[in-house]
UniProtKB/TrEMBL annotation:
The gene is IL3RA. It holds the Pfam family IL6Ra-bind. It comes from Camelus ferus (Wild bactrian camel). Gene3D superfamilies: 2.60.40.3850, Immunoglobulins (2.60.40.10). It is a single-pass type I membrane protein. The keyword Membrane applies. This is Interleukin-3 receptor subunit alpha.
Length: 378
């Protein structure tokens, strides 16, 4: 208990130590730590150790950050571009505390870009916006860089939007495939002929700042008794989503949350649905955009395409068969019941449309002829 109390008292003393005291300790003629320095490329603060110490801790802006490695250096995840105070303290051994500032503060702090915000949208686009610093000179110009904090690869912005003064206030990346989904630093550097411009930065992963687009319905089918709808969400960084559905059947409005990318309904009738999504692996994720409301009218099930084609083919064959049957029947009727020949009527011989039939010799028959005598009136 006494050791724990002593340790707590030591931490309190370190945190409350004024800068003037730190400077006085640095001016000790023979301190245990000398030549405190920062290596931004290797992201480490190191020093020269003189004497025996058991434990050294490093602090960032008076907040404990890391325990020293081999009591000779501390390594950080990244080195901010803003002026930051780094301090080192001996917690077990001869008392010592010292600090450095990196990078050195130059120019007016309020000349830096303000309200830097970046987000991924429409699945393939990354946009960053910022406001001109309140104390920035009129000729200030800003440039944005995206840096992978693991590989240290850096990408400059190539597409800017400018305000009415010609100052860059927005940047867009159109191809996210070349960017890393890991931890990235978005930094905006400024320049002016009047004075140095401090930088601004934020550190985010791309999936953390992604604003999901509305889900797209990929397939839908329904009849009087059953309905199924499927959809998908485009994202380069996540595959696990949660969905919220808003369904309306008549006057009944229902909200439903699910991790499935499909909806099944029994006896659906006529209904409308819209969908939105969010990441499931993030803490307190925000919902994306709603999809367009789709309306489904589920009546009698339509005939399958193959059955419709088969019925058309059968109808065509039946029509052809009927035509052939009629033609054949007409030919048979002609043979069974040939047309009866008629004697030429001399009275109507002058008519042009009179039908004439030639008698064949073998079919000529001897017919009895009677002589008729017309007697005049007495």
């Amino acid at each position: 208990m006494g050791a724990a109390f002593a340790m707590a008292f030591l931490w309190l003393a370190v945190c409350l130590t004024p800068i003037s005291c730190l400077l006085q300790m640095d001016q000790d003629p023979d301190p245990v730590i000398k030549n405190l320095r920062m290596d931004p490329e290797r992201k480490r603060m190191s020093w020269d150790l003189h004497g025996n110490v058991s434990q050294i801790w490093c602090f960032v802006n008076s907040r404990r950050a890391h325990k020293a490695r081999n009591n000779t250096y501390c390594k950080f995840a990244h080195i901010p571009c803003q002026a930051t105070n780094y301090s080192v303290s001996v917690t077990q051994g001869p008392p010592f505390s010292g600090w450095i500032q990196h990078p050195k503060l130059e120019g007016k702090a309020r000349a830096a870009a303000e309200n830097l915000t970046c987000w991924v949208h429409d699945a393939d686009l990354l946009t960053c916006t910022w406001a001109v610093g309140r104390e920035a000179p009129r000729d200030t110009q800003y440039h944005l860089y995206l840096e992978n904090l693991h590989s240290l690869q850096k990408w400059p912005c190539s597409q800017y939007r400018q305000d009415e003064w010609g100052t860059n206030v927005e940047c867009r990346f159109d191809d996210l495939s070349v960017l890393s989904p890991e931890l990235n630093r978005f930094s905006v550097n400024g320049s002016s002929r009047e004075s140095p411009i401090p930088c601004s930065e934020i550190t985010k992963t791309l999936h953390e700042i992604e604003r999901l687009t509305a889900p797209t319905i990929t397939s839908a089918w329904c009849n009087q008794t059953y309905s199924i709808v499927q959809w998908q969400v485009r994202s380069h960084f996540r595959e696990d989503f949660e969905y919220e559905l808003e369904m309306q059947q008549g006057a009944h409005l229902e909200h439903k949350q699910t991790e499935d990318n499909f909806l099944k309904l029994s006896n659906p009738g006529t209904y409308t649905v819209r969908i939105r999504a969010r990441h499931t692996a993030m803490l307190a994720p925000s919902w994306g955009e709603w999809s367009v409301r789709e309306r489904f009218v589920c009546g009698r099930a339509p005939l399958p395409v193959w059955l419709t084609s088969l019925l058309i083919a059968l109808g065509t064959l039946l029509a052809l068969a009927l035509v052939l049957l009629l033609c054949r029947r007409y030919a048979v009727m002609q043979q069974l019941f040939p047309p009866i020949p008629h004697v030429k009527d001399p009275i109507s011989d002058h008519l042009q449309n009179e039908r004439m039939m030639a008698w064949e010799e073998e079919k000529q028959q001897e017919c009895p002829v009677a002589e008729v005598q017309i007697l005049g009136e007495n």
